[in-house]
Amino acid sequence: MCGLLNIVGLTAARAQCPTSPPSEQARFRFFDVETKQEITDRFLCVGKRIRIVDASNPRLVSGQVFYQWQASVACRGFTDTTSFYTPTTAGPIVLTVNINQNQTGGGSSGLLVAYPAFEVKTSPPPTFSLVSCTPGAVQVTITDPTYDRYTVQVGSGPAVAATRNTTTTYPVPASSPSTVTVAGYYVAATLCSNTATQSFTPPALAQAAQFQRLSLNGTTAQLTFAGLQAGYQYSLQLRDASAPGGYRTLTALSAAASTYSLPNATVPGCYRLLQTDACQPSVTNLPSNELCTVALTATAQNNQNLLTWTTDQAGPFEVVRDGQVVAQLPAGTTRYADAAVTCGTSYAYRVRATGGGVSESSEVRATAVSTDAPPAPVLLASYTLRNQVELSVSGPASGSLQYTYLRDAATLATTTARSLHDSTQATPARACYTATVRDACGNTSAPSAAVCPVVLTAESTIPEGTTVRLTWTALGAPTPAMPVTYRLLTLAPDNTVLNARVVTLPTTLDQPTADQQVLRYRIEATGGGLPAPSYSNVATVARRLQVVIPNAFSPNGDGQNDVFGVKGRFLGPFLLVVVDRSGQEVFRATDRSQTWDGRIGGRLPVPATYVWRFEATDATGQRTVDHGTVTILR
């Protein structure tokens, strides 16, 4: 049985076969292949190739020497005659040498020499972190847990001893590469070491950040800034006389940030950004410009909203109402009265301080109030072409207004509409109209000036309707002292104006020349303080349709009574049909330009008597049906 081997604190496994310790007759030396340095301690390195050299006296026969590396002494299975070995796993490992073994049987008849256990160490690149500081310095922290000792080399500078988990600032040699190399070593395993290199970017020279905007939304401040530089640290600070240096740090900010939302902001309060070196805060200590919150209140007063604010920012200031700038005020201003308001309307306000960056207050609202009655509306009353009175008001339309329309002092309707048709008047009749307006605060105006639209009547003076008498009432104008002009308009069936002429009160005669059965008239009144023309009702005169159909004609070419046709006044579309004695249609006409020369089928006229039938509907809708005979004479 093999005994226990205690080498440098490691216990070799109990061998199950007789072994011998190294001796003059069977002894080996170990060398690092890379450095050719002899390994005299009991440490090997993962991945570092070693060479086994025979140091026996006398020398052994190399072809009869077998090696086995494993966690315990090997007794059999020796096949490796290679004198080179590369450890792959950390931990204890034992070298067993079989000299002159009988390989045929695979037994352990030869001399087994077991070396005390080696300790295999790992040698990974050491881990560390670095921060590039103010130009000319770098901060290194070794975080590696593997090695016993370390060195740090910055650029082309010297390697200096360092301690793990200790943050140290190192100078960067001038014109040196921007690299940091950390080397790790073992105290005992002198051949086990490794290095790691990281590059860094030296920061630019420090420049103050720009604090661009501070906007309040309730108790939260939205901050916007620019010009933050990589490689520096930033902190948001609040002016505080009790804090060291007069400012209290609220939070750290990333150099990549451009905005920050600050809950529960101090109002009023002044803020800034402080730029410091990432490694040595005392080396760089550069503040930004300062922005101060604006605390705004709005109070509704009679016919104006009064804004007051407090801030340590001097200004100048902008007053913003419903998203639009309504006033620009000089530095030092603390109040503004907005008189361009409408009673009952709610307005949203903000105040901006614009000097050295923008600081905007939170939004406040005020609903305008007033105890003053609104001005009386300006009313227009006019008949439509359908003979219905239309009322419309003009004047300011802002805010929630209600209009009350009255006819002869009796209320017609109360509505928010700025126009109304008087549907209660069945036929045109003299009436006077007024209106009042009530604002959102409950104040009612005085009545408007009364307007009495013109009422027009028209009648024929003779049965033929060649002369028409027109009579109208005077316009009840809102400003009686101002003159009124009247024009008589003659209208076509489609309401286009055929003729217009100035007339005077109270009546006039018209001798129409238009060949239309229904005459249409209207009075246009202007002046008298009206905002637009006021029209009378449309008055009509219907003239009687006149039709003449001859009972004989002589188509002999003498120029007299050569054709048969319809004649008359105000004759529109009609139907005239002529038939012979057998009932066959021989002629048809639908307008007065169509006449019959007596020919039938192109043949010469034949003297005889024919029957005709006439149908027509006049412009008033009256239907006429007639019949008779016509005789062709030689």
Automatic annotation (TrEMBL):
Protein name, UniProt field: Gliding motility-associated C-terminal domain-containing protein
Domain of life (superkingdom): Bacteria
Pfam families in UniProt: CHU_C (PF13585)
InterPro entries listed in its UniProt record: Ig-like_fold
